[in-house]
Amino acid sequence: QVQLVESGGGVVQPGRSLRLSCAASGLTFSNFALHWVRQAPGKGLEWVASISGDDASSAYYADSVKGRFTISRDNSKDTLYLQMNTLRTDDTAVYYCATGRPEKSTTVLRSWFDPWGQGTLVTVSS
Amino acid sequence: DIQMTQSPSSLSASVGDRVTITCRAGQTINTYLNWYQQKKGMAPKLLIYASSNLQSGVPSRFSGSGSGTDFTLTITSLQPEDFATYYCQQTYRIPVTFGPGTKVD
User: Fold this and answer.
1) What is the DSSP letter of B1?
2) Contact at 8 Å (CB) between A46 and A62?
3) pLDDT for the residue A57
4) C-alpha torsion angle, residues A76, A74, A20, A38 (rounded to 10)
5) Which pLDDT tens digit goes with each residue over B43-72?
6) How close is the nearest chain A Cα to the Cα of B87, in Å?
7) From CA B4, how far away is CA B97, in angstroms rounded?
8) Which residue out of B96, B97, B98, B102 would a mutagenesis test of the A interface target, given it has the greatest number of A Cβ atoms within 10 Å?
9) B41 pLDDT band (50/70/90 cuts)?
10) Per DSSP, what are the bridge partners of residue A115?
11) Contact A116 B44 (CB under 8 A)
12) Cys staple from B99: which of A12, A67, A122, B88, with CB 3.0 to 4.6 Å?
């Protein structure tokens, strides 16, 4: 079955950088759009970024991370990334990656997220 | 941005109860509305996609309906494993947005 495993979380000081990874298995990776969603402690879900499938030609970001975060993918390694620069304390959250459905969609929109990884905690604190 | 609201924000229910959660979009989103269940300390799990389609493996006591701006998630007979927080999500426009959640306890 499809499995997503995030890694790379940890404690980092404000203004520093961190790169998250999401390793996928059990699917034809390049056929799927992929997404990052975060959840601050005790809060709801917040969409962070999305990237289109095969050619990764389209990437979209929440205003709160635009210009600081970069989503990318390596289809040869079945891995999704989130490069997070200039981190702020309000970036503290569990970060989830998720597969976009349906398969082979030409857009990241009109979709649903399934499955999700188990999440990785990022804590931004001095 | 498309604002998503949910009501109620929380509800108390008993095993066997019928539970209805409402989600409203700030503008029309056709049927591009999904529902997720999240238990404490776990990742969200897809229940319903495109307003009314039951995800494979999800019990048939869950159902969804609606189009345009008003949507409903119904649990016909609440089971012990259904106590969780439920989120709606629109994927009609960027930014993708989630409702604030409804906690069922």
Assistant:
1) -
2) yes
3) 78
4) -120
5) 999 999 999 999 999 999 999 999 999 999
6) 8
7) 7
8) B96
9) very high
10) none
11) yes
12) B88
Task: Give the type of residue at B65.
Answer: S
Two tokens at A52?
């289109």
Residue B38's H or E segment, with its range, is strand B33-38
B46 → closest Cβ in A96, A109, A113: A113
Return the residue of B nearest to A35 by Cα: B96
Scanning the structure block, which residue is given the tokens 């495109």?
A: B50
Determine the average pLDDT of the residues in A85-111.
Answer: 94
Q: Grade residue A104 by pLDDT with cuts at 50, 70 and 90.
A: confident
Cα–Cα–Cα angle for B36, B38, B44, nearest 5°? 60
Edge-to-edge strands, sheet with A69-74: A3-7, A18-25, A79-84, A69-74
Residue among A60, A63, A114 whose CB faces B46 most closely: A114
Provide the β-strand partners of residue B75: B19, B62
Residues of A in Cβ contact (< 8 Å) with B5: none
- The single-letter DSSP state of residue B8 is -
Q: Is B45 on the interface with A (CB under 8 A)?
A: yes
Are B85 and B92 in contact by the 8 Å Cβ rule? The answer is no
Query: A15-59: per-residue pLDDT in tens?
Result: 999 999 999 999 999 999 999 999 999 999 999 999 998 777 799
- Euclidean distance between CA atoms A63 and B94, whole angstroms: 10
> What are the structure tokens assigned to B77, written together?
């007979």
Compute the Cα dihedral for B54, B55, B56, B62 and give only its sign: negative
